[in-house]
Amino acid sequence: MSSISSDHDQQPLPKRTRKTRAVVVCARCKAVKTKCDLQRPCGNCVKAKVGHKCSYGEEEPTTSTAESASPPSANAPITPITPILSTSDANKVASRLAILESRFTKLEEWIAGHALSHEYSSNSTPSVQLDKVTKWRLLLSNLPSQNIARRLMKRYFLADTLFRYSHEPSMMNHFEKYYPTNGKIVSLEHAAFFASISMAMMIGTHIAQHAESDNAILCTMKSPSKRHPETQYYHLLASLLNAQRTLHDPLSSAAVEWSEMGKVFHIGILLGYHRDPSEMEAHISPFWTEMRRRLWWQLRTGEQILAQRLHLPDVLPKASVRKPSLIPDKELSQSALYTGWASEWSFVECKISQVELISQINLIRSTSQTSIDGVALFQINQIVSQFDTVVPLHLRFEVVTSARASNTFEPDLDQPPWVLAQACTVHIGVSGAILAAYQPFWSLPTDIPGNAALISDAFERSVAASQRLIISSELFVWHTTIRWPEGRALFSWNMGMRIFLAGMTLALSAIQNGPTHHAWKTNMNYLTSAIGLMQALVNQRPRLNDGSRNDGSADQKGLGILRQLYRCATSAESANQNDDLPATFSDECDPYTYFKIPSPTHQQEIQGLTANSPAALSEGEIRRNFTLDDLETLLNEIYGSVNV
C-alpha cells in the first residue's frame, strides 16, 4: 500500500494552461485605452492618419519560467502546434490577408510606374511617337472609302448652303489631295482637317437619312448633265413661292419669313443666279436670260424689304446681274427666233458710270489748274480709256458705225427703235467729255520744254473725239428725224456747243496740216458734216414771239465761223473774201442759259480782252496765224465756259 501511495504521490500534477483571448482592439487603441471599432484600419487610426500602422497583434501565451526552462517530459500528451481557430477568427485572418495582398499589389504597381516614368524621362520620345503613329494609322483605317466619303461631303455642302460655315472648293481640294487611298501616307499634321471632314460626313449621313428627296433635287440640278435653265428656274421659283406663302400666313412673323427667304437666297446663290447670264460659260437663250434676271432682282428686292423690317444689314453678296428689261410679257417669247431686246436700265447705268468718270476728270482739272503737266495728262488718259468699258455691248460705238455704214442708216432689225438713239446719245456725251478734258492742254505755252509733246498728244486725241462726236451726232439727228421722232427728248441742250467745238478742232487740224496731208480730206468731210449739223440746229430753233428767227443766236454765230474756217482751209484766196470774222458778241444772250454775255465797260477790260483774244483777226490772218489759243477764245466768246 505504501508503495502504491508513494507512486501516486510521485506522479506530476497536470499542467495548468492559460486560454488565449481573441484580440478585441488594435495595438494603438489598446495603448491609448480607447474603444476600437475593430475595422481594418479602425476609425481612430484613420482619424489620426496612421491607418497604415493599425495592427491587431495576437497575444503570446505566458508560461512560467520553470515550464519554459524544463523540457517537456516524454510522457506528456502531444498537443497540436497550429491553434484551433473559430469561424469568426478565420474570417478575420482571411480579411487581413486580403488587405495585405492588396497593399502589396498597389506597392508593386507604384514601384513599376515610378521606374517607367524615370526611364521615359531619360529617353521616351521614340516609344511615345511610335504609339501616336500607330493610333493615327488605326484611325485612318477606320475611315470609309473615298467614294462614300465624297458623297457624304457633297450632301453636307448642300446642307451648308444656308449657313456657309465652310468653303467647298478649298475643302474638297484638300479632300482629294490628302484622303488616304491605295496606301497613301498622310502626315499627322492633317489631323485637324480629318476631324473636320469626319464631322461633315456625320452631318452628311444624318442628311442622307432625313432629307433625301430635297438633296436629290439639288444634286440633280448641280450635275453637269442636268443644268438646264428651265429646271433651275422653276425650282428656285417654287422655293420663292413657298416663302411667299409664308408671308400670307397670319401666324407668321418677320423672323420666320427671314429664315424662309434665307433658304431661297442661298439656293439662288448655289445655282449661280447672282451672276449675270452673259458671264456664264454655258450659253443661255435670251428668254431664260431675261427670266433669270427677273427672278434674281425679285429675290434681292424681297431681301432688302425684310432686312429693313428687321433692321438688319444687307446679307446678299454684291452681284453683277443687270436689271431686267422693261418688256411686256406678251413681247417676251420663248421662241428660238427671239433674240432679246436691250435693257432700258443699261442706258441709265451707263450714263451714271460716265458721270462718275467725268467727275474724276473735273477733279484732276481743278487740282491741276496752276500746273497742267504730263502727270495730269497721263491721269486723264487713264480715265478716258475707261469710258468704253462702262458701255454695254448693245450701245458700243460699233453699233453706230455699222448703222452709218449702211445706205439706209438702219440699225439691226431685231433691235427696238430706241437702241440706236441711246447709243448715239452715249457717244455724243463721251466725245464731248473727252474734248472738254483735253481742251486745257491747248493753251500751254510752247516755249517751255516738253509742252509741245503734251499739246500734240492732247490735240490728236481731241481730233479723234471730234470725229466720233460728228458721226454720232449726224446719225442721231437723222434717226430722230426719220425713224424715231420721240427720241428728240434725248436731245442735249448743249448740242450746238459740242458740235461747234468738234468742228473748230477739225478745221484747225485741216488748216495746220494743209491739203497735202493724208488726213486733210477726212477732216474736211467731218467739218462739212459739222456745218450741216449746225445748220440743222439753227433751223430747229424755236421762233420768237413775232414769228421771226433769232438769227443772232450762238448757234447761228458758230455756224458762220465754221463756214469761214472751211473756206480758209479749202482755198488760199479765202483771205480776199469780204466776210469778216465777228469781232465781239458782247450784246448777245446765251440761247441755252439765257444769260447775257458780259461786255467790257472800261478801257482796262477792253485792253485785257484784246490782249488775250484774237477776235479781231481777219480771215486772212486766220489762215496764216490761227492757233489753238484762237480756237479756245472763239469758243469762250460764243458759248462761254465749256462744261460738256
TrEMBL record:
<dbReference type="InterPro" id="IPR036864">
    <property type="entry name" value="Zn2-C6_fun-type_DNA-bd_sf"/>
</dbReference>
<feature type="compositionally biased region" description="Low complexity">
    <location>
        <begin position="62"/>
        <end position="82"/>
    </location>
</feature>
<dbReference type="Pfam" id="PF00172">
    <property type="entry name" value="Zn_clus"/>
</dbReference>
<dbReference type="GO" id="GO:0005634">
    <property type="term" value="C:nucleus"/>
</dbReference>
<dbReference type="GO" id="GO:0008270">
    <property type="term" value="F:zinc ion binding"/>
</dbReference>
<dbReference type="GO" id="GO:0000981">
    <property type="term" value="F:DNA-binding transcription factor activity, RNA polymerase II-specific"/>
</dbReference>
<dbReference type="InterPro" id="IPR001138">
    <property type="entry name" value="Zn2Cys6_DnaBD"/>
</dbReference>
<keyword id="KW-0539">Nucleus</keyword>
<dbReference type="InterPro" id="IPR050613">
    <property type="entry name" value="Sec_Metabolite_Reg"/>
</dbReference>
<feature type="region of interest" description="Disordered">
    <location>
        <begin position="56"/>
        <end position="82"/>
    </location>
</feature>
<protein>
    <recommendedName>
        <fullName>Zn(2)-C6 fungal-type domain-containing protein</fullName>
    </recommendedName>
</protein>
<feature type="domain" description="Zn(2)-C6 fungal-type">
    <location>
        <begin position="25"/>
        <end position="56"/>
    </location>
</feature>
